[in-house]
């Protein structure tokens, strides 16, 4: 069963890599600290919106100290359009303070240390470790990865943590970082939440939820 699943995932990966050769982290950043901030901002917000906000934000705030020089109200205004801006301000200023006090202003390289930072959960830590440091500590699970994992029959779990635990044994470790980028690219282009385009899907033959097989539109 696990072997069959692993083989299917390998085939899915091969086809998605061919379909989306440029798949990568869609949050603009030029270093680990910027990626950390962008990922905190991306909660309940599109990456496109975050990229608009960080264009100015990263010019104004270049290092952790800069986020602590302003009042919470000022930072709230600067990130307002990403939503949940009060909580995100608390997280960003808390994380900036912890980075300065505990890590010499640098972003730490381990899951345990990242999880200690305010506002940083496993998804954010995985994004930073994988995309800023090239460290495969886990698999990022967002709404696209959740939806496609269900449709592709890779997990039936509901929470991101449990879905990640289902994916870890079946996705080759060397692909842990690229896997979510490929799935997100496919989720945006073809396997959309509503009305997935199964007839145009490159992994249709490997998908148990395909409309062409079941005659039923897959659930979102
Ligand atoms: S066949 Fe349909 S449901 Fe399955 S992955 Fe492709 S688009 Fe999504």
Task: Record keyword descriptors for this entry.
about 220 residues; mainly alpha; binds iron/sulfur cluster
Describe this structure in words.
This protein is mainly α and 220 residues long. Helices cover 56% and strands 0% of the residues. The chain has helices at residues 2-19, 32-41, 47-60, 64-68, 72-79, 85-103, 111-116, 122-132, 143-151, 160-167, 178-189, 211-214. The protein starts with a helix and ends in a 6-residue tail after the last helix. The model has no long low-confidence stretch (mean pLDDT 97).
Q: Find the structural class using helix and strand composition.
A: mainly alpha
* Mass-distribution shape: elongated
Q: What is the makeup of the main sheet?
A: none
Low-confidence stretches are none
Radius of gyration using CA atoms only? 19 Å
Cα end-to-end separation: 25 Å
Helix content: 55-70%
Short description:
The protein is mostly helical and 220 residues long. It is 56% helix and 0% strand. The model has no long low-confidence stretch (mean pLDDT 97).
Secondary structure layout:
Blueprint: H1 2-19, H2 32-41, H3 47-60, H4 64-68, H5 72-79, H6 85-103, H7 111-116, H8 122-132, H9 143-151, H10 160-167, H11 178-189, H12 211-214
Helix pairs in contact: 2-8, 5-6, 9-11
Iron/sulfur cluster is lined by residues 151-152, 190-191, 196-198, 201, 203-204, 207, 209-210, 218.
């Amino acid at each position: 069963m696990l072997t069959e699943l692993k083989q299917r995932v390998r085939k899915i990966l091969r086809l998605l890599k061919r379909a989306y050769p440029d798949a990568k982290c869609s949050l603009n950043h030029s270093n680990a600290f910027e990626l950390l901030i962008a990922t905190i901002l991306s909660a309940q917000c599109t990456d496109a919106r975050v990229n608009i906000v960080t264009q100015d934000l990263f010019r104004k705030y270049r290092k952790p100290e800069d986020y602590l020089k302003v009042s919470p109200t000022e930072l709230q205004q600067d990130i307002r359009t990403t939503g949940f801006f009060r909580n995100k301000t608390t997280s960003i200023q808390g994380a900036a303070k912890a980075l300065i006090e505990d890590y010499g202003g640098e972003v730490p390289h381990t899951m345990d240390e990242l999880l200690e930072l305010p506002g940083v959960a496993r998804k954010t830590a995985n994004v930073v470790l994988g995309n800023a440091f090239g460290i495969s500590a886990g698999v990022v699970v967002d709404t696209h990865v959740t939806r496609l994992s269900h449709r592709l029959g890779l997990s039936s779990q509901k929470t991101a943590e449990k879905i990640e635990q289902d994916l870890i044994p079946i996705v080759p470790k060397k692909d842990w970082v690229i896997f979510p980028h490929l799935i997100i690219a496919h989720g945006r282009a073809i396997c959309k939440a509503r009305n997935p385009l199964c007839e145009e899907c490159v992994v249709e033959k490997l998908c148990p939820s395909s409309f062409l097989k079941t005659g039923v539109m897959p659930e979102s």
